[in-house]
Amino acid sequence: MCLLAFAWDPKAANRFVLAANRDEYYARPSVPAGWWASYPDLWGGQDLQAGGTWMGITRGGRFAAITNVREPQTNRAGMQSRGLLVLEFLTGLASPEDYLEAVEEGADQFRGFNLLVGELYGATPSLWYYSNRGGEAPCPLSPGVYGLSNASLDTPWPKVVSLTSALTLLKAADAPLEAYLRPLADRHIAPDQALPSTGVTLAMERMLSAPFIISPDYGTRSQTVLIANAQRQVDMMERSFDNADQATLLAPASVHSDRFMID
After folding, report:
1. Is the pTM of this model over 0.90?
2. In the chain, where do the E strands start and end?
3. Are 88 and 58 in contact, with CB atoms under 8 Å apart?
4. Starting from the edge strand earliest in sequence, which strands make up the sheet with 42-47, in order?
5. Core vs surface per residue 96-128: b (16+ CB within 10 A) or e
6. Residue-wise burial string across 10-26, b where 16 or more C-beta atoms lie within 10 A, e elsewhere
7. How many separate helices (H) and strands (E) can be counted in the chain?
8. Which residues are within 8 A (CB) of 227 and not within 5 positions of it... i.e. 6 or more apart?
9. What residue ranges define each of the domains in the chain, with the CATH number in brackets?
10. Tens place of pLDDT per residue across the chain (263 aa)
11. Which top-rank group of organisms is this from (predicted)?
């Protein structure tokens, strides 16, 4: 993922609400969100290049999502795909705290990332955050509304602020899944004075400042909305785009939605 906003409160009617955009090169092969053949209890997209995923949820209520940290190239031989971290948590049994402690020990094997993992239901529901940039230990998240892009949690980039604000209003209005797609489709470019400085060109900073990114080779590949309520019902929707023409027209190559009850 490259932009997401979410509300977390295990005592609320809708305990977890998430709206997210995944930005990626169109040439990188992937499969839209759905139930995995290899892991039938896992719902999410599949990265066919490295085998992991950027976000997913299981029938047992395990959730995970990851964003990259935008930084100068730090590739070196032997570095692992960050999407494997999401898959490993979703298909494992470790608690969020224990899992992130293990990830922290091997964090230098990955380029910069922000990782969310949680158990949304059960006796002790929790949602945790960890980044291998910034030097902070994994931490549980208190109830609240959060925004995340390609910097640390709640860094006030314009698109993070706008999506977080929109999600807050939509959640308060008990809006349906489809309503969250509108702020995710926002193509507004932030003014230069509001742009971060992340080591890319000014032209690139401008392009990447939009919540919904369009360029010939790289852009928003999918939009995902997820709502998990107190009755253990989870509703999900994903719109995916295969090329810039589809993105420009907001004409998705596929739309996948599902509803299930937590085991």
Report:
1. yes
2. 3-8, 14-25, 30-35, 42-47, 55-58, 62-68, 113-119, 126-131, 139-140, 144-148, 218-229, 233-240, 254-261
3. no
4. 30-35, 42-47, 55-58, 62-68, 113-119, 126-131, 139-140
5. beebbeebbeebeebbbbbbbbbbbbeeebbbb
6. beeeebbbbbbbbbbeb
7. 6, 13
8. 14, 16, 17, 18, 177, 234, 235, 236
9. 3-261 (3.60.60.10)
10. 899 999 999 999 999 999 999 999 999 999 999 999 999 999 999 999 999 999 999 999 999 999 999 997 766 677 899 999 999 999 999 999 999 999 999 999 999 999 999 999 999 999 999 999 999 999 999 999 999 999 999 999 999 999 999 999 999 999 999 999 999 999 999 999 999 999 999 999 999 999 999 999 999 999 999 999 999 999 999 999 999 999 999 999 999 999 999 99
11. Bacteria
Using CA of residue 238, residue 149, residue 40, residue 111, what is the dihedral sign? positive
Place of tokens 């990830």: 103
Burial class (CB in 10 A: 0-12, 13-18, 19+), 38: exposed
Q: Which residue has the tokens 């692992």?
A: 80
* Cα distances (angstroms) measured from residue 35 to each of 31, 41, 183, 258: 11, 7, 26, 10
Q: Within a 10 A sphere around the Cβ of 3, how many other Cβ atoms?
A: 27
* Amino acid identity for residue 32 in this structure: P
List of residues 6+ apart from 229 with CB closer than 8 A: 13, 14, 15
CA distances from 224 to 26, 41, 181, 203, 240 (A): 17, 18, 8, 27, 9
